[in-house]
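Collaboration report, partner site 2.

Our partner group contributed sequences for two proteins of shared interest, and the home lab folded both. The records are reproduced in the order in which they were received, starting with the first partner submission.
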Amino acid sequence: MKDWNLHIRDVKIKDQGLYSCQINTHPVKIKTVYLTVQVPAKILNNSSTDAVVAREGTTVTLTCNVDGLPIPNVTWYRITTTSKGETKKSEFCPGSNTVGMRGEVLIIHNVSRHCGDTYECWAFNGVPPAISKYIKVSVEFPPEITMPNVAIGQDLGKETILECSITANPQPVVTWKKNGVDIKTTVRAGRYRVEPYPETEFTMSLGLKIQVIEPADFGIYTCVATNKVGADSKEMLLYDYTLRRMQTKGQQATKTTISTTLLPPYPGTYHPKVSQKAPHYEGYEQEQEDRRITKVVKDNQQSGTHKPIGLGVPSTENKGTALIGWLSTCLLCVLVNLSLVRDVLFLNGRDYTL
C-alpha cells in the first residue's frame, strides 16, 4: 500500500478550501480533506491611531485595526508606572467610556488630564504570536498656579525666595511682576534670580530669589503663567518684617496698659470690675438675723412705738400690751447680746461656758 501526499509550500489564505484524494478503482474511492489556513494577528498601522493630542473636556477616539484568521480579539490597556519604575497594565482612567474595551475602537468621553498616558492595543487570535501597539495620548489644559504663602515677611538686607507652583500642559511661559511691572526673569538679572524645580510631569515650582532686600523690594508680586490653552496668575505680598514686629509690640503694650487700668490699684480696694464676695462662715446667717432684730428693738426704743420684729410695721395695740411687748423685747435683746459674745469668743479660738 502506498501513501500519496500533497505538499503546499508558502501556504496562503487562498489555499484554504476542500481537497479530495481520488483512487481510480472500481468502484472509485475518494478521500476528502478541508484545509483551514490560520493567520496570526496583525495590526494595520496605516489605518490605526499613532498619537493623539486633545484638549481637556473633549472626546478622544483611539483606533486599532487588526487582521488575521481567525479574527483577533482586541483588548485595551493603559500603561502606568509603579513606584519602582516598573510598567504594568491597568484599566484606563476612571470615568471613560468602556466601549471598545474589547474592540478595535476605544472612546474616552470628557477626557481629563488624568487620562493622559500611553495606551496599549493588544491583539491575539490563538495563533502565536500576539501583537500590540502603543498609542500616546496627551491632554492639554491651561495653567493652574498655587502659592504656599500669600504673604511673607523679611528683614532688610536679608535674602528671600518667593515661590509659586504651576501645573500645565503644554509647558507654560512663566513671568514675575512687581506691583504690576514685569521683572527680568532671566537666570540671573541683577539682584533677582529665577530657580525652577520640576516636581511631576506637568508640575514645576518657580522661585524668585531676591538676594538683598531693599525698601523698594516690598510690595505685591504676581506669578503669571501662559500657554496656548489659557493663563493663570496669583499674587503674593512681601512686607517689612522689622516694621511689622515693631507694630505688633506696640499693640501688645497698648493692650497691657488697658488691661492694667481695669485692675484695682492694691488689694482690698473696691473696683466696679472686681466682684466683692461677702464673708461666709458657720453661723453667719444667724448673726445677721440677730443684728436685724437688735436694730428693730433700738428703733422701737427711740420712737416709743412697737413694731413687730418679724414684719416691721407699726402696731395699734394698747399701752399694756405695748409694755409687755417692750419687756419681751428687752429679754430677747439680752439673749441676743449673750449669743453675740459667745460667737466672738468662739471665733477667737477660745472656749468659754456662758
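Second partner submission, folded after the first:
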Amino acid sequence: MSQDSSGRIVAGVREWITSASPGARVPSNRALMAEYGASPVTVQKAMQQLVRLGLVESRPGAGTFVRSARAPRSVDYGWQTAALGTAPAGLVGLSSTQRTVAPDAIGMHSGYPAVDLLPGRLVRQALVRAARSDAALTRSPAAGLPELQAWFAGELASAAPVGITPASARDALIISGSQSGLSSIFRAVVGVGQPLLIESPTYWGALLAAAQAGVTLVPVSSGAHGPDPEDVERAFAQTGARAFYAQPTFANPTGAHWPPATREAVLETVRRHGAFLIEDDWAHDLGIDADPRPIAASDDDGHVVYLRSLTKSASPALRVAAVIARGPARDRILADRAAESMYVSGLLQAAALDVVTQPAWRTHLRGFREHLRARRDLLIASLATHAPSAHVESVPAGGLNLWVRLPDGTDVLQVVRECEVRGLIIAPGSEWFPAEPSGAYVRLNYANADPSHFAEAAAILGAVLEES
C-alpha cells in the first residue's frame, strides 16, 4: 500500500508541476499527507523520487520547490580529437555480452547466470556479517586476506596428484575479478610487444586484456577437445613465446574440455620451452557432465599461472578472484596489481570467504549443476526442433554457453540484428576470435534467460535463418 500511495503522490505532483511556474513552492508534506491519506514515510519517499527525477529541489529550512528548467545547449567536444590522438589498440566499445536490453527481450547474450540460480541468501547474509566486522573499515593486505588466500590454495591443492608439492596460501593473490588478473599477468609475465599464444576461439575479455597490455597474439586453433599439442609445440618453436593463455576446463565460448592426454602434453611442452601456461579456470564451479581437474594442480615448478573466479558461481557483485603463481612470477604479478588498484576491498573478500566456507555452499553447487544441465539440454532440444540449421557441434560438459554454428555463408551480424528486432538478443561469434573467424558462429547463454522462452528463442533464430 505504501508503494502504491507513493506512486500516486509522485504522479499527482508531476501533473501539478506541468501548470506550475519554476520556483513555485510544492505543497507541504502535511498537505500531501492529508490529500492522499499517506503516512509521513510514504510522502518522504515520494519527494525523494521527485528529487531524483530532477523535477523538484529541496531547500533546507525553506521547503520544496519546482526545479527551474535548464535550457539545453549544444556542446562541442571536437577539441578532444587532437588532445587524445589516435585511439589505443584494443580500445573498443562494450562487448555484445555486456549490453543492457529491454526487460521483455529474451537475453541469451549475457556471460552470467540468472539471479535465481545464485546463492542469494548466502551472499546477502555474508555481506551483512562482513559489514559488521572490521573488514568494513580497514585496509586489507595487498595480496589479500590470508584466510581467503588459504582457501583458494587449498582448493587447488585438493586436486594435486601424489608427489606434487601443493600450492601454499602465499602463492595465492586475491584480485578484483579475473579480468584485472589477466591484464596484470599479461603485463608481468609476457611483456609489451612479446608474443602470447592463445586459443582460437577464446574468451573475448582475454583478447581485450592482451590488446591493452600490448602483447602480440599468436592464435592456436582449438576445437571441442582443445588444441592439438603438436600445434602448440610448433607455435612455441616458431615464435619463442613466453606463455600460452588457455581455458582447459569448459572453455568460453565453445565449452571445450581438454582430455588428460592433451593436458599432459601441453604442460610438458610448456616446461620444455621454459614458458608459462596461463590457465583460466573461469568455469571451475560450472561442471555438468565432468569435474574440473586444473592443470595447475599437477605443476609445482611454477610453469602454470592459475586464475579462478567466484563471480559466476557466487555473485557478479562479489568481484573476487585469485591468481595462484609461484616464484618471481608471483611477485611481479603482485607488484602490478598493487600499482593498479592497491588492494581488493576487504569487505568483499570477507563476504566471499563467508559464502564459500558455509556448509550450504556445496549444496548450492550441486543444485547449480542440475539446473545448468536441465537448461542446456532444453535449449539443445529447442534448437533441434525449431532451428535445425543451427548446429551445436559439441555438447558442452560444463559452463554456461552453447557454441552454435550457422550455415556457411551466413551473415552473422545481420542474423544477430534481425533476431534483436524480433526480441531475441544473441552474441555474434566473431568477438571470440583473435584472427578471422573460422566459420559463422553465435554464442547462446542457456543460464540467464527464462527457460520457458527457449522454444520461442529457437523459433526466432530458425525463422531468421530460413529467411536469410
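Feedback sent to the partner group on the second submission included the following. The domain at 96-111+362-467 is CATH 3.90.1150.10 (Aspartate Aminotransferase, domain 1). The chain has a mean pLDDT of 89.
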